[in-house]
Amino acid sequence: MIAELLTARVLIGIAGSGIRLATSYLYAALGETFGQRSGVLNLGVDGIMLMGAYSAFYITRNTGSPWLGLLVALLVGTAMGLAMAFISVTLKAEQGISGIGVYLFGLGMSDLLFQKTLGNIETISGFQSLHIPALSESSNLLLRAIGEIFLSHNILVYIAFALVPISAFVLNKTTIGLQIRAVGQNPEAADTLGVNVNLVRYCTVTFGGLMAGAAGASLSIALLNVFQQNLTAGQGFIAVALVYFGAWRPFGVLAGAMIFSLVNALQVWVQVLGIPIPSDIAVMMPYVLTILALVVAVQRVEEPAALTKPFERGEH
Amino acid sequence: MQSLLKRLDMGAFVDALTPLLAVLAALFIGALMLLALGANPVEAYTALLEGAFGSFNAVADTIVKATPLLFVGLGICIAFRGGVINIGGEGQLVAGAVSATAVALTFPDWPSWAIIPLCLAVGFLAGAIWGGIPGLLKAYFNVNEILSTIMMNQIAVQGMNFLLRGIMIDPVQLEAASRIPQTARLSPATDLPRLVPTRLHAGALIAVILAVLVYIFLWRTTIGYRIRAVGLNPDAARYAGIDVKQYMVLSLLLSGALAGLGGAVQVLGLHHRMFTDGSAMGFTGGAGFNGIVAALFGQLHPLGTIPASFFFGALLVGANKLQRAVQVPSALITALNGLVVIFVVSSDIWRRRRARRRELEKVSAALAAATASSAEHMEAAGDR
Q: Which CATH number fits domain B40-327: 3.30.70, 3.30.1360, 1.10.3470, 3.90.1170?
């Protein structure tokens, strides 16, 4: 039975769907990385993803243009990110709880709009996946592997992976990145040096909202092409955890997202092949793994010193 | 002095009013949303009130809906007062419910007086474990409890699905082709006393008694005092010789235990079996999150959480009637609950500002008194 899992066809399938499934986590977690690096924990990612997913789906269904759908999802995400920034930066609300409020709002609102405007679960054609018959139907195993694993995805998958090195570059090599890190590490010092702490945080949290919107769209108009109540099923919370898992570094986030989605892909294939490993236990593994990784990770890296702490001038 | 006292009272009064204002603001936005959806807000809210309080049965249903919110909310009071955040209510409810169900299925012949306390105790214990693990991880491995409680939610859900599709599945379902993931109906001996013909069960009474006990625990016992001390200022608590880590674990453990007990009560009092739709919400109805809303609304006070839970239970029950009356999905209430949370925690800034101003006034009053008395001393010295 296990041998069936190790055939080339299945391994290629797992790798390919692993990459596809990692997409939504990547958008959400990379956006969250910027926010947390600047000291703001946005726990409402899942709610923003749901709103992004709904609006992308609705617009795409009615206009036939997934690009327009994506654009609207980005706008909705940006608006909700801005609201979250106002709540946590200006109003200095407790971030662990206000995020739950944003989550509940997004959960209820997307469901409300879905039932009011759509009502039924339907599929649409969103972003099309690359299809290169010369590769994916080739008799050469290597060509087929390359085709299926790397060249059979929709455009949002490629953008998500491209954003990993770009995010790392911005955070580590640019002035903006330096400001973000300074604000998250020592806001008082950054403020003394003339960095506008609140402005930086507004930008990162709003950007995180935009990315969460994209994450939602990558589910509803690219990967699944459907919308239903609670479509994300808690993916946004996992994305927040992946930021910790990846030690606040984009490549760490990538590693976490890949592990997570590969295990999920494996579990799907286990079910497809009818292998009697209880799939619920398999699905549980990534979460157990994340807790263990957190235990190990926090021993070696420090979180941004000012994470979840609102900034107040002249407090010290 | 008189005016200062008056102002202090006013401050406390305004503080107590804040959550109410937050709810009013949320309901106002809800009214705007209803208008945008082409529904008459007055008609909608009237239907909501009627659905929640319109008949004896409706009130009973409201209390039934409020019960798990109160269990979770009491746990949240302990956790938040102890300075730890527990987002794991969903998982703790599930853990308590599944364990209690397992015990009830294992001893189908036991009489009520033995099986009910055992099930409740096991649910309590399972919740304690589910909350205690994140507590231990936070205290001794520095793992953020927000994340670990979220992970524990997912683990509980998958564990529940595994058990309900596997060894705990109803033998009838096993033979039927549908294989709905649920257990058999538990032995009637496990049923909590119920106010026939309504669905109101003794769980609500247990929850209210617990609220009083939690109040006594937090404000009238040394352990409770220490929990709150750690929550207010962990550094000061440490200097005072309190083992801060131990109390962090205890807060999360008790918080989880109360939610776990709530899960067991849901099974014994309401559902009489365990079932799953694949997610936690199918069983909990989101009580793990809405309990947080209720506790915040009750100002993290165990006794305040009683009316708060009742209020949110009413919203949830009334939402169904609202949906039928004006064709606006009951999901509206979930969205409004989110807004309530946001408004309550956001308005905290004004409470903190007032508290700081009061502190400043006190300090300046003390300073003025000190200067005056030292001036007297000087004068006295001068006379001599």
A: 1.10.3470
Helix, strand, coil % in chain A, rounded to nearest 5: 75, 0, 25
| B326 lies within 8 A of chain A by CB | no
User: Are A108 and B143 inside 8 Å of each other by CB?
Assistant: no
Cβ neighbours of B349 in A, within 8 Å: 91-93
H-type helices in chain B, by residue range? 2-36, 41-53, 56-81, 89-106, 112-141, 145-165, 171-175, 203-220, 222-232, 234-239, 244-265, 281-284, 287-297, 302-326, 331-383
Q: Give the pLDDT band of residue B167 (cuts 50, 70, 90).
A: confident
Interface check for B167 against chain A (CB to CB < 8 A): the answer is: no
Which of A43, A240, A280, A298 has the highest number of chain B CBs within 10 A, making it the mutation to test binding with B? Answer: A280
pLDDT tens for chain A, 316 residues long, are 566 667 778 888 889 999 999 999 999 999 999 999 999 999 999 999 999 999 999 999 999 999 999 999 999 999 999 999 999 999 998 888 889 999 999 999 999 999 999 888 888 988 988 888 877 777 788 888 888 888 889 999 999 999 999 999 999 999 999 999 999 999 999 999 999 999 999 999 999 999 999 999 999 999 999 999 889 888 998 899 889 888 899 999 999 899 888 888 887 777 777 777 676 777 777 788 778 877 876 666 677 888 888 888 765 4
* Contact residues on chain B for A298, CB-CB shorter than 8 A: 141-144
Cα A223 to Cα A166: distance, rounded to the nearest angstrom: 23
Q: What's the pTM?
A: 0.88
Predicted interface score ipTM higher than 0.95: no
* Count of CB pairs separated by less than 8 Å, A with B: 148
- Closest-CA distance, B165 to chain A, in angstroms, reads 9
Token pair belonging to A86: 């106002």
Out of B155, B292, B339, whose CB is closest to A287? B155
Rounded distance, CA A85 to CA B259, Å?
A: 31
Per-residue pLDDT reduced to its tens digit, B43-65? 999 999 999 999 999 999 999 99
Q: What is the pLDDT of residue A12?
A: 87
A304, A55, A45, A51: which is closest to A183 by C-alpha?
A304
Restricting to B residues 187-226, those with a Cβ less than 8 Å away from any Cβ of A are none
Q: Please indicate whether, in this complex, the C-beta atoms of B147 and A244 are within 8 angstroms of each other.
A: yes
Contact indicator for A178, A11 with CB cutoff of 8 Å: no
Are B262 and B287 a contacting pair, CB within 8 Å? yes
Q: Long-range contacts of range A58-62, CB-CB < 8 Å, 24 or more positions apart?
A: A58/A113, A58/A117, A58/A118, A58/A227, A60/A124, A60/A126, A60/A221, A61/A118, A61/A122, A61/A124
- Report CB contact under 8 Å: A116, B161: no
What is the mean pLDDT of the segment spanning B366-383?
68
Q: B331-383 and B302-326 are packed helices; what angle lies between their axes, rounded to 10 degrees?
A: 150
Select from B87, B154, B334 the Cβ nearest to the Cβ of A108. Answer: B334
